[in-house]
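hey so i finaly got around to running the thing on CRISPR-associated endonuclease/helicase Cas3 from Pseudoxanthomonas taiwanensis J19. pasting the sequence first so u can double check i didnt mess up the copy paste, my clipboard has been acting weird all day
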Amino acid sequence: MAYWGKAGRWGSVGAYHPLVFHCLDVAACGQAYIDCQPGLLGQLARWLGLDDTSARQVLVFLLAVHDLGKFAESFQYKVPELVEQGFDPPLPRLTGSRRHDEIGALFYAWLAEEGRLPEQLRGWDADTWGALLAPAFGHHGMPPPTLPPGRGMALAALCEVMSPQSRDAAEAFFAWCARTFLPGTLPASCNEARAKLASWWIAGLAVLADWIGSNTTWFGYAAPGLHGLSLMEYWQRHALPSACRAVEEAGVVSVRPRPYHAPEVLLPRLAEGLRPAQAVAADIDIPAEPQLFVLEDATGSGKTEAALILAARLIDRGLADGLFFGLPTQATADQMFERVTRDVPAWFEDPARATLVLAHGARDQSHAFLRHLAQLDDDVPGEGRSATMRLSEWLAQGNKRALLAQVGVGTLDQALLAALRVRHQSLRLLGLFRKVLVVDEVHSYDPYMTQVLLRTLELHAASGGSAILLSATLPLALRSRLLATYSAGAHRWRADEGQSGRRRRSGSVQLPQAQSTDYPLLTRWSRSLANQAQELAFPSSDHSRRVLDIEYRTDEGQVLERIAAWHAAGEAVVWVRNTVGDACKAWERLVERFGIDACTLFHARFAAVDRRRIQEDVLAALGRNSGAASRKGRIIVTTQVFQESLDADADRMVTDLCPVDVMLQRLGRYRRHLRDAQGNPLEHGCTQDGRPPGPVVVFGPDRDVEPDADWYSRFSRGAAYVYAAHGRIHRSARAIGDRIELPGQFRTLVEAVYGDDAAPIPDALQTAEDRDLGKVIAQGTQAAQNAVALSEGYGGSRWQGEERIGSRLGDSIEAVLVRVTPQGLEAWATGRCGEDEDVWALSTIRLPGHWLPKMEAAVCLDGRLAGMAEELRNKVPALRYRLILPLVEDGNGTWSCTLAGSPPLSLSYCDRRGLQRLSR
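ok and heres what it spat out for the 3d tokens, dont ask me to read them lol
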């Protein structure tokens, strides 16, 4: 009992928790968790070729030995007083730099190499056990480093950090765990390939169990009088009872769902009648097997409710316990969260215990995880951030909690990080287990995110997860890729690779392909369909059938005059611009003419608290329930944030020229809700909008001239960077013509721009098109390099902290705005939000990555402010990976900050205009 596993806060000498007791605490937590998650146990058993009881025993063994590396002197001497107190004579002082997770892997490699493995392990070969132990040793969120090659190298490395005495102690505990927890015999059905497949989810279990088992609320340090207990006595009397309580109180156990009855019971707002997409979701047959749905329908057609109906039916069939709804942006996640909270808790038998979390944490409805953070005690000097500190940071950043809740709503990034080689990838993957993954606006993701989404789908399908993908419309080729990828993952669900562990040849499984060009369309695939997807066409809703006249303008002055006329008539106008910079310029011109009270600027470059305020104002003015008074004469200048899932509509709309799929999404916010001539909502049952007819204005470069290479960049340099495939922009301009019939032209317009039979690209624009194609290929390659590979197992190289590899390419940097006050630095959101809200999350803002190409060197030019910012970063875990921008008040509501550099970067912020770059 002299080896310590947990010690009191550094400086309080004497208090400690024996290492072997801590190991048993964690094993007990893992056992309690899988006992409450029979689906997880059953899936791991299936992969390992075991019955549930034997699989449970193997998992408990793996967790029990997770901290073997802490037997090393290099770890024990982190607190030399405890070594001197517990050992006479003291252990030899070995202070190598290897972390205890790496030492654990080295220790196992030495046992295997020397033939010292306990007989209980000998049913499986050493490589199989190595694949299973790697995730246990990697319980701090990343796999241990790759071991040195060559016979004898493991022992040589081990001798630097671990004496023979400690190796003997570790070996004795390892052998006791094998005798105690492993089944008497292990069938030969498991092999390295099967173990590697299971390892990804075992890793998440190890992280979660270690976190719960490190919480001193549930696992206080054993009093000296308990040190005399045998391991079995401690296991039965203390570890197991404490673990059952801990798992229950941690809020990580799913609540049982109520039976599904009908859509109007599930979602009471549908009592007035179902739209076609919702009706087909309610009627389609759902077999008892994991499946993928792809729903394509016009914006405003009720896809969200259709997805919720499908998700509830999947849960009712026993195929899932909860859901995660992934959206493109925080703004869309905010609004979706409000929609989900209205109804989803009532799906469960105990709504108060069903955890419902907003991904970026500004408005959590469950604080079960955060209650105990102050009690966590796992920080070890010299070992970097321990499990406690890392997980404290991970949880303190609210956008990372959603996947562990039974129902999560957030940005899709949080799900995509389950497929990337980043810290806590495995915990996110575990969080997705037995959840319906719903992805909205699938068409809106760039090539990098699309490739990571494909890998996420493969992982999710491999674990038996179901997914629902929503889009206004998808190119046929992308729909086929989504189907094929999910199918490939699903064929691993039953460990189809067989006992040999060899991967199936790519041609041995025929993958499904999309065929139908009907619209709207619901596509479904499950394994029983083999290589055929079920494609169901259904009628479009009455409101989505409309004809839009297009007025194409190349002169900004004419656009402004159009807006002026609409404003004078009291109509609500929205101008959707392609970039924040272009939106700011247009807003300034409109404010000069109509005043600041009439004109609202809404884009992504606001602090979260201000962006939320503006979004709420926009929804109050133009949302579903808005009326003539709130809409009268309002002018909203906005960017992509308006077009993505925002339930608002414009009386009149201007849009910059953009790719046709993006334009169709924007047009979905044009007269989205039926209104009378004054803009008041029409009663249910009315089918004709009463507002006077008029065109949608598209503002862009001349589409009737032969373009040169600068055709689009002359119109807007920023837009030319954002939408770099200028040939497809030209195709879009030509394809929309002077009139669009919806929804009939949804599919044809997209194929006219992206399809194999699209019109040739003008020669002058081919260079830009080729450059963009190269970028697409590079993004796909980078995504493949950053993503995990199922067949490799949990391990390997190229793992990074979350600040190094992202779910999106480096086009933005997350920063936190802080005000400089006489008392010091305070979060920008202080005084602007509720007392219970996270002021740091609400003070975040995103900067374009090209503003700060070297973020590591981004510090405030003022040395005093730079020091204050660094001191704040060390105090607040949520700020560790965020750039801090100390703002000094300039007057007139503006604040400024200058970052060091060559040249310096000067920034200005106000809550009406947002963040602006003044120089560089």
